[in-house]
């Protein structure tokens, strides 16, 4: 087990001592936003500090280490598993990166951008577009999520199929380690085999091993032409066959492959009636395919060719190919607004899971049967099929609310996660562990890996000040 | 510094005790091949054990831990930095994975193959091709290198530009940790954010944190059409501009982009006269471009279109596009035989370096000037320009041998590495640290990262039995 030294609160005296060493803008008003999280599960606490540069981050962490004050790194506050919230324990420093937003350099010839950790994801998209490049990481919260948090949680999103997760888009990091020293690993190199992969260790460690302060990120050329289609499939197995066909014909040109169920369309109709419904008659299952192609290929023609071959093979029964950017946007809006529709319906239990791709059809059948055995529910299962990542979410029947199902909540979650685990899947595909899934990690995680994680945590953060209680039990 | 407990030799009594617990085939004759390495720099020693399954690997490591006997994991023996050789210290166990070659499973619908660590890289290529898939990791030693070693050293090769390094091709690992416990991390998942990234920590750790016993690897669809061109460029800057143009037009379809210098052609003419010289008049600089394209694109036409636009822009002055598979093979043979020609000439000092891509032209000019300041030498600079990875190798003038330059060897290496370091590059792009570059890592490595590495090493291998002296000083 992790050795847990006694932590101390960030007292007024502790903060006053910092005031003498740091400029005034570091000291922020602790407005309620810092202590809320998107799903409203926890209420946080803490003293908010927002350093303006890496040296000041280091100064704060050194002071916290000396006084054994907990440090909770804070990006855009959009995390869904409570990694950014300290609901109990000694008052921590909430270390917000919000003032460190600079683009330190952009290198179009290298396809590299170097940004500070507080840069908002969408601002990085804009900076890349200004030099005719793409930064492909894209998640629903891109307008407020900050890249430091995206990296700390190894964010996923809709373009993972083509471009990988956040870790795959990072070439180098600058970070403040738990002892307050600065690791300058901000390399702009595609190949660098000089020692252990500290970069990937920090990425996905959710602020428990250090504070990411800047990153060198990979950019990509922008595809020459883009296109989007919706295609109706009989079910998840046909969808997987369609994906294999698409990748055989189009290769890396398949940028996104998202599966959706009729429930998503029904939820949109129920809660967001202004969203344009794409189908005259709601299909049981359908996919959104997005392509970004090289010179010499017409996206609509490529999607038509795919549809024709898939129709011939009996994989698709209907479909539509966007004829304009407006229509592409409408197709994507269906996918992107489903989480908002879910929020308005109010899920009893949501599951961010991944599975070996070929087992997904079986999983859905079995999971639906398990849930039906617990009671009468609506299920909205959708997500990044191309990555084997489903959002398998369970909702009350019409006329009932989540408050009616408090008693079944844990049973549902446990049943879904047990099945995922049995099938070799992950109970946190892209959201991370945070505080929400610490018990799941203990239950389903490999014990040898867990022991290695605890040993690493103790080795790098012997005082246990970095985001205590996240990922590993404090 | 790393705490170094006293290690003990693998005595006859130690091995005899193992004989009682392990089947006879585990105990191998210690033929000289196990103690040689490709560059002939070291002579190794040890007792060779070749377990047939993961349980037996664990049994051996547990016994070594109990007796504090060093363990040197051994794959294909093709590493270029001595990571697989123990030239001194107490007699180690050479833990060869050669008997663990099984394909445990292949999942075309998932684009995944699960193999044991002793599988030879080329055999994995063959297994993938049999299900119409590609395993893209490819290095010169593919006929004898084993995937466990490829992963332990995070191998690179000619397809990194498109498909990434070895770590980018690995979804999951099974490994025996230094205490002899088995980590079952053999997930077939594209997204899995459940805790620290132990997979990437083991990948590239060169056997110092555990023994990789099996891996789940990513496969790719095979491109519908492939093509290769040689194009003459004025120099490295034009080559970089050509690469940017190629990627803008062709996207991920650019599979490889290799730069070569006239010296490479001269060395081939001198040492391997049977290799067909591609150019009537040897150019100063040229590139090999390989493309693998989606349905609907003709590789030759795509390369012609690229050449036409590049010629118009003044980036290329001459070129040829392979008109057959035979010609593709001939073009590639030029690139692939350059290391053999180098070996026959006999380098004074070889450098496997990477740089921020936009700095490569400046680096070559400055490095050539630095070398000229030391004396009269021939330089063969070539490599994976698309990855910013150069092999910058220094040779004697005609009529002289490497033995004539022993005195200058360290000066040359130091000068090249100092310049690489000043320019933000890496002194080991793809070969790793092994035993050859331990001092380089100490000199050029970030001290905060080095301390973190030492802390991790001590945390996971407190007895220091795993490949002592590799990567970190024992």
UniProtKB/TrEMBL annotation, chains A, B:
Cofactor(s) essential for the protein: FAD
InterPro entries recorded: FAD-bd_oxidored_4_C, FAD-bd_PCMH, FAD-bd_PCMH-like_sf, FAD-bd_PCMH_sub2, FAD-linked_Oxase-like_C, FAD-oxidored/transferase_4, Oxid_FAD_bind_N, Vanillyl_alc_oxidase_C-sub2
FAD-binding PCMH-type domain span: 35-222
Keyword vocabulary terms for this entry: FAD, Flavoprotein, Oxidoreductase
Swiss-Prot/TrEMBL GO biological process terms: respiratory electron transport chain
Residue stretches spanning the membrane: none
Enzyme Commission number(s) from the entry: 1.-.-.-
Record-linked Gene3D superfamilies: 3.30.465.10, 3.30.70.2190, 3.30.70.2740, Vanillyl-alcohol Oxidase, Chain A, domain 4
Pfam families tied to this protein: FAD-oxidase_C (PF02913), FAD_binding_4 (PF01565)
A single GO molecular function term of this UniProt record: oxidoreductase activity
Matching PANTHER family: BLL6224 PROTEIN (PTHR43716:SF2), D-2-HYDROXYGLUTARATE DEHYDROGENASE, MITOCHONDRIAL (PTHR43716)
Protein family (similarity comment): Belongs to the FAD-binding oxidoreductase/transferase type 4 family.
Designated name of the protein: Putative FAD-linked oxidoreductase
Species: Roseovarius mucosus
